Amino acid sequence: MVDKMLMMILIPLITAFLTTIILKQHKVVWTLFLAVSGYLSYTLFTMYGAWDLTWSIELGYKIFDSNLVLSLANNPLGWFFAFFASVTTMLIAMFSIAFNDDKHDSKTAPIWLILIFANIGIFFAQDWLMFFGMWEMMSMSSYFMIAHGKEIPAKAAKFYLSLSLVGTSTLLLGIISVARLSQTFDINASIDSLINLFATDYNKAILYIGLFAVTFFIKSAVFPFYMWPSKAYAESPDDFTPFLSTVMSKYGIYGIVLFILPILQNADIPALGQINEPAYILAVLGAITSVLGTILAIFETDMKKLFAYSSVANIGYIVMGLSTLSIIGIQGALFHSINHMVIKSAIFLSLAAVIYRTGEREMHKLGGLAYRMPLTFMVYLLGIISAAGIPPLNGFASKWLIIQALMSQNMLFVVIAMIFASTGAFMYLFRVLASVFLGQLPDKYKHIKEAPLLMAIPMTIIMLLMLAIGVLPGIIMKPVNAVLIGMGYDVQEASWTTVHSAFSNSDLNVTNIFYIFMAGAAIALVFYLFSAKSVKVTQDDNYTAGELPSDWGTTPERFNFSYGFYQPFKEMFNPMMDLISFDRWMAAFGKIVERISNGLSVLYTKSEGAILMLYIGVAILIIGGWII
Amino acid sequence: MFNINSLEQQDNQDKLWDKVINYFRKRSLWMLHYCTGCGAMELPPVMTSRWDMERFGIGPMATPRQADILLITGYSSVRTMKRIIRTYEQMPEPKWVLAFGSCTVNGGMYWDSYNVINNLGEYIPVDITIAGCMPRPEAILDSMLKLMDMIQAGEAKAFRKYKENYAYYKANQDRLFMERGPVLESAALRYVHEETEGGEA
Amino acid sequence: MMTVFNIILYSLFAILVGLIFLGIGRKVAARVHLRYGPPFYQSIIDVIKLMSRESITHNFVMDLGMVMALTGLIGTMLYIPIAGHIAFESNTNIIVIMYLMAIGHLGMAMAVSASGNPYANIGVSRALTMMLGYEVPFFTVMLGLIIYNQSSSVMVINLAQAGSIWNWNIWQMPIGFIAAEMALQAMMGEKPFDAMIAPAEIASGPMVELSGRYLGLGFLTKAVGVFVETALIVNFFFGGGTSVITFVIKQLEVFLIAVIFDNIFPRYKIEQAVKFLWIFPMGLAVIQLILLAI
Amino acid sequence: MNRITVETLLQDLASRGLNGEKISEQQIKVFASKDNFVNHLHYLQTIGFEHLANINGVDYIAENEFEVVYQVYSYEHKIHIVFKVRIPREKPVILTVVTLWEQAQFYEQEVHEFYGIYFEGNKDLSHLFLENWNDLPPLRKDFNTEEFSEKLFGSKRHGGGK
Amino acid sequence: MNSSLFLIIIPLMGAFIALFAKKANRLMAIVITLFMEIFSIIIYLSGKLPVSVEIGGWQPPYGINFVLTPLSVGFIILINLAAIISLFIIRGEKSYQFYSTYLVLLAASNGIVLTGDIFNFYIFSELTAFGITALIAYPKDRKSTGAAIKYLILASTAAAFLLIGIGIVYKTLGTLNIADIASKISLLDPLTLELIIILMLTGIFVELELFPFNMWVPKAYLGGTASVNVMLHGMLGTAGAYTITRILLTMFTVDGSGLLVNVNIANSVIVIALLTILVSEIAAFNEKKIKKVLAFSSMGQMGLIIFGFMIGNEQAIVGAFYLVVANFVAKTILFVLTGEFIAMSGSGNWEDMKGIGRKHPVAGLAFVIGSLSLMGVPFFAGFWGKLGLIQGAINGSAFMVVGIVIVLITAIIEGIYFLKIAHTLFLEKDSDREYLSKARVHSIVIAAILALAIIAIGVKPGLIESNINSATDEILNSTSNYIDIVFPRR
Question: Min CA distance, A406 vs chain C (Å)?
Answer without folding.
Answer: 11
